Amino acid sequence: MSDTNIRDRNGDSAVERVDVLVVGMGFAGMYNLYCARQRGLTARAFEAGSDVGGTWYWNRYPGCRVDVDSVQYCYNFSDELTNEWRWSERFASQPELLRYCNYVADKFDLRRDAKFDTRVISALFDEETNLWTVRTDKGDVVSAPYCIMATGSLSTPYKPPYPGIEDFGGEWHHTGTWPHEEVSFTGKRVGIIGTGSTGIQAIPVIAREAAHLTVFQRTPQYTTPARNRPMTSGEQEAFNARRDQWRKEVKQTFNAITDFSPPTKFFHENTPEERRTYLESRWEIGGMPQALMETYKNIGVDEAANSVVADFVRDKIREIVKDSEVAERLCPPSDLPIGSKRPPIDTDYYETFNRDNVTLVDIKTSPIERITAVGIKTADEDYELDAIIFATGFDAMTGSLLAIDIRTSGGASLKDAWSDGPDAYLGLMVAGLPNLFLINGPGSPSVKANMVIAIEHHTDWIMEALDHLREHGLDRIEANEQAQSNWVEHAREVAEATLMPVADSWYVGANVPGKKRVYMPYFGGFARYLKTCEEIVADGYRGFQLSRTGENADTSIVAAQ
Ligand code: N01
Fold it and tell me: Phi/psi class of residue 162: alpha, beta or left (left: φ > 0; alpha: ψ in -120 to 50)?
C-alpha cells in the first residue's frame, strides 16, 4: 500500500497519496482512521474543527449532554478502552464526552494522521486512475482510491436568515458553533430561538443564570424527564461484565439501544385508569425518549394510540406549568404526533416556565420579523435583549455532504444525484460515485439509532468491503442504480406507513427552506437493517458492482442486483 507524494494528472501540484481519505474526526472519523490503520492501510483525515470530537467539539452550549445511556453511547471496539474509561453520569455532559474523544485520540494516537482546522472543499474521482482527490481550504491535495465521508448527520448549523442581525448591538451565538471561552449570561436579558432537543437542554440552564430569558417558540415539543443522575458504584462494572452479551442484544433492537423491552400491549387492552398508571410509571422512570414511545404497540403508526400518549404529556404540562395560558402555549398541537419530531428528554424544562424571569413567546402566531439593534421584533412586539441564541438546528444529513463539491471525471456529481432527494443505497453509497462511502448517510438508521453503534456498524461494513476487494484483486465498488432505487423505495414505504413523516421536522428537511421533503433516516429498525446488510454481503454484495481499474463491467465481477 502506498503513502507517497505524486503529481496530479495536470502535473501541477504535489499530491499526497494514501489508501483511504477520511473527512471528519468525530466519533465516525476517529473509528475509520483506527480501522484503516489496523488493516495496514495508510490514511489521511481532515477536520474543520481544531481537534477531535465532531458534534461534541462544536456543541458546547449550556446543558448539552447525550440522551442515550453513556455506557451504551461509546465505542465497543476495544475492551481495554471500555475497561479503562469511567462515566460519571448516566447521560454524560458535553465536556465529559469531549474528554472521552480526546482520550480515545490519545490512546490510539489518532491525531498523527489528521489535519485540523482544515475544511475539505472538493472531492473529485478520476475514472481512469480510480482515485479520489480531495482539496481543502488550506491548499491540501490528497488522493486515495477510497474516500469516507464521516461528516456527521447534524454538523451544518442552520440559522434563519432574519434581516438585521448585523445591526444587533449585543452578542449572538448558534448552539452548534458555541464559543470555546465561557459565555456569561449573568445580569443579561437573553433571547433564545428554538425549542428542539438543543433549546430544551439549554433553556433551564440559561434561565438560572440570566437576568431574564425570553423563549421564542415556533412549535411546542413533547419532552420527557431525563432523570439524569451520577453513575452508582459498580454500575458500569456490572454493565461491562455483560457487555459481550449486550453487543449481541443491541443488534436485535430497533434503535441500537437496549434496556427498554418492546411494548407488549395495544393501548385499548388497558382501561383509561390502567393507562394513566402505566404511563405515569414510565414518566417516573424517564430517561431516553423510549420511556414513552415504547409503551404501547403501534404508537408510531396508529393515531389513536399515539394521541393517548400525546395527551398524557399535555396533561403533564398542564399539571407542571402554573400559568394556564403558558401551559397551553407549551402544549404541542393535536396534529403533531408524539415522536414525529425527534423526542427530547429534559431536566426541568416545563418547570422553567414557572420562573419569574422566563417569558414564552409564540412565534407561530406572531413571527419574528427582524433582528434590531436592541433585540428581536416580532409581528406584535419588540423584545430588548443583550444576547440572542439560535438553537435553530441543522441542515441535517445532507448539508455537510452537499457543502463539498463531490464529482467524478465522468461528469457525475452528488449535487445532481441528489437534486430530487438524497438517494443512497443502504445509506452507504451513492450510485455513480464509486469508492465513496457515507457514514450514517440518508437511508440508513443513523439518527434513529444510537449513533456510535451505527457508526461502528457502517465502518466495519466498509472495512470488510475493502478487505473483500483486496482479497479478490479488485479496487472498485459502486452502488447499482436499480438496487439503490429499490432501497430508497423500501425506505420510503417503511416511513410512510408510520406517523413519522407527518411533522415538519429536520427528518424530512422541512426546517431548511427549499429542501426536498424526504424522510431521510431509515425507519425499518436497526436489527432489520443489519440483517439486510449481512444478506447483501452474503449474496456477493448484491446491488453493488465490484471491479478492477481498467476493466469494464463485462470483465469485472459484477454482483447481482
Ligand atoms: O434542532 P431542531 P436542535 N424560525 O431542528 C426552531 C440532536 N440533538 O438543535 O420545530 C423559528 O430539532 C424549530 O422550530 P420548529 C437531536 O437529534 C441531540 O434542537 O421547526 N424557529 C425548533 O424549535 C436533535 O433532534 C441532543 O417549528 C425556528 C428549533 O428551532 C437534533 O440534534 C441534544 C426556525 C430547532 O430544533 C437537532 O436538535 C441536542 C425559524 N426559521 C440535539 N428554524 C441529545 O443527545 C428552526 N426553528 C440530547
Answer: beta
Where is 483: in which H helix or E strand?
helix 481-496
- At 86-128, the pLDDT tens digits run 999 999 999 999 999 999 999 999 999 999 999 999 999 999 9
Architecture of domain 4-52+110-156+396-547: 3-Layer(bba) Sandwich (3.50)
Residue 456 cell numbers, joined: 461502528
**Contact between residue 372 and residue 166 where contact means Cβ atoms under 8 Å apart:** no
Q: From atom 40 of ligand 1, which residue's Cα is the shortest distance away?
A: 160
pTM of this prediction exceeds 0.90 = yes
Could you tell me if the CB of 160 is within 6 A of ligand 1?
yes
- Tell me which of 218, 452, 502 to substitute to probe ligand 1's pocket, judged by most ligand atoms within 8 Å of the beta carbon: 218
Instruction: Tell me if residue 492 falls in helix, strand or coil.
Output: helix
> How many CB atoms sit inside 10 A of residue 324's CB?
9
Task: Provide the CB-side half-sphere exposure for 533 (13 A, CA).
Answer: 26
Nearest to 409 by CA among 124, 206, 217, 174: 124
Residue that is written with C-alpha cell 458555541 in the block = 178
Q: Is 23 helix (H, G, I), strand (E, B) or coil?
A: strand
547 lines ligand 1 (CB under 6 A): no
Domain ranges for the chain, please list them: 4-52+110-156+396-547
Q: DSSP for 319-344?
A: HH-SSHHHHHHHSPPTTS-TTSSPPP
Q: Are 411 and 127 in contact (CB under 8 A)?
A: no
Q: Which three cell numbers stand for residue 11?
A: 502535473
CA 226-229-231 angle, 5° bins: 130
Distance from C-alpha of 347 to C-alpha of 496, rounded to nearest angstrom: 32
Mean pLDDT, the chain, as a whole number? 94
Is any ligand 1 atom within 6 A of the Cβ of residue 392? yes
pLDDT at position 3 over 60: no
Cβ atoms of 438 and 406 within 8 Å: the answer is no
Q: How far apart are CA 261 and CA 68, in angstroms?
A: 15
Q: Whose CA is nearest to atom 39 of ligand 1?
A: 198
Ligand 1 midpoint to CA 158 (Å): 9
Q: Is the dihedral of CA 431, 436, 442, 446 positive or negative?
A: positive
Q: Which long-range CB contacts under 8 A does 262-271 form with residues at least 24 apart?
A: 262/294, 263/294, 263/295, 263/296, 263/297, 263/299, 264/297, 265/296, 265/297, 266/296, 266/297, 266/298, 266/305, 267/296, 267/297, 267/298, 267/299, 267/304, 267/305, 267/308, 270/296
Q: Are 277 and 309 in contact (CB under 8 A)?
A: no
Which phi and psi angles does 374 have, rounded to 5°? -120, 5
Q: Is 452 in the pocket of ligand 1 (CB under 6 A)?
A: no
